[in-house]
Amino acid sequence: MAKGIMTDQYKMSAVILCGGKSRRMGTDKAMLTAEGTPNAVRLLRALSGEDSPCTDVWLSIGTGESYPEIHAQKVSDRFPECGPMGGLEAALTVCREEYLFVTPVDTPFADAQMARELMAYMADASLQHDAVLVIDGGGRLQTLLGIYHKRVLPALTQRLADGRREKLRIRDFLRDLDVVYVNAQALTDGFRKSTSCNTPQEWQQLMEQESFRRGAGPVTVSVTGWSGSGKTTWLEKLLPELSERGIRTAVVKHDAHDFQIDREGKDTWRMAQAGAVVTGIVSGRKAALMEYRPVALDRFIGKIENVDLVILEGGSELDLPHILVYREETGKGMRVPPDSCLAVISDDPVGDGCAAVFSFGQIKEAADFIERILIR
Questions:
Q1: Is the pLDDT confidence value at 29 over 60?
Q2: What is the pLDDT of residue 355?
């Protein structure tokens, strides 16, 4: 079965894990609101509906909270004080289907599409796997974001009934299972949908990114690598391929130095020297706007209109999806860890950390990947 296709045979249940203590966040993560909607309600809506593969959706509420204001099926832990494994075990006990899609309530943008796409990985192996779990955009395994088969329930119940604290580590439990690990970049909008928040700072950052995402329009990706790695040469070959596909692309150079773009003696240069903080020049074929003041990157990119993709050449330190361009001969190693990247462009060995690796000559294949993952 092709990935992304769903039949009635592969329906599933779903659970939203809400029973945590939220100690690091300082407030109940289930009730954090984005655009006026609590996380728990947002996820309930995202996993329900006629197009969802989830036939029943549950809130796992631990042993105390009940969320009377939220109308949903709720399940309490059968084994108190056992953490998220207790919530998973309780949900597997009551769920209707053989497969259970699991998401923490602090992963607010997980949805039915993610569940459907993950089920396709389960189906690729004739349904023999015990679980399919997501590795997020930072390369971290999300042990509670994915699908578990109901066959794991007896072993899970036995661990909890044992009562020993060392039995409650879910990573140890996974060692006994047949698990498929799926990188976030293989899923539609996977970086965003797998992002979790455990602290107020992480939540604020996510909300700022959402605000920027809604307002800026085009997708932004960083193409990063050390000087001499071939970023510009690769982009010169990639851009015509993207253009042929109708993908309107803007390229922004992220410069760490005090660059000079205006030419001494020109009218715009003279106006800037006289005190203008913004100068511009316009003709019938092109235009340029120059700002002589600090400009936040998101505000700058937000001014770019009528494009589908913004490529930032550089920006390795910024919180953006990265494509790493790597040449071993630079002698500097990798600019960013490959397992934190959407893809790596290299003719040298890069290890197994990144799911998508293209040689410098695989321009069409890289463009296919960018179109599928970033443009859709």
A1: yes
A2: 62
User: What does pTM read for this prediction?
Assistant: 0.59
Assign 128 to helix, strand or coil: coil
Alpha helices in 127-286 (DSSP H): 153-162, 170-174, 190-193, 200-216, 231-244, 267-273
Closest by CA position to 146, among listed 172, 184, 173: 184
pLDDT tens track for 162-184: 877 767 788 889 999 999 999 98
Question: Strand 278-282 and strand 287-291: pairing?
Answer: antiparallel
Question: What span, in angstroms and rounded, lies between the C-alpha atoms of 94 and 144?
Answer: 17
* Pairing status of strand 141-149 against strand 99-104: antiparallel
Most confident of 146-160, 213-227, 254-268, 353-367: 146-160
Every domain of the chain with CATH number 3.90.550.10 lies at 8-205
Contact (Cβ atoms closer than 8 angstroms) between residue 193 and residue 109: yes
Mean pLDDT of all residues belonging to the chain: 84
Single out the residue of 207, 237, 255 nearest to residue 370, CA to CA: 237
Output the CA angle 126-127-129, nearest 5 degrees.
Answer: 115
H or E stretch covering 119: helix 112-123
Structure-block tokens of residue 158 = 């036995």
Separation CA 114–CA 102 (nearest Å): 11
Tokens at residue 111, please?
């949805």
Q: What is the CATH number of domain 8-205?
A: 3.90.550.10
Phi, psi dihedral angles at 177 (to 5 degrees): -110, 160
Cβ atoms of 293 and 277 closer than 8 Å: yes
Q: Where in the chain is the domain with CATH 3.40.50.300?
A: 217-257+301-375
- Say which residues have a Cβ less than 8 Å from residue 74's Cβ, sequence separation at least 6: 58, 59, 60, 61, 66, 67
CATH topology of domain 217-257+301-375: Rossmann fold (3.40.50)
Taking a C-beta distance cutoff of 8 angstroms, is the pair 353, 139 a contact?
A: yes
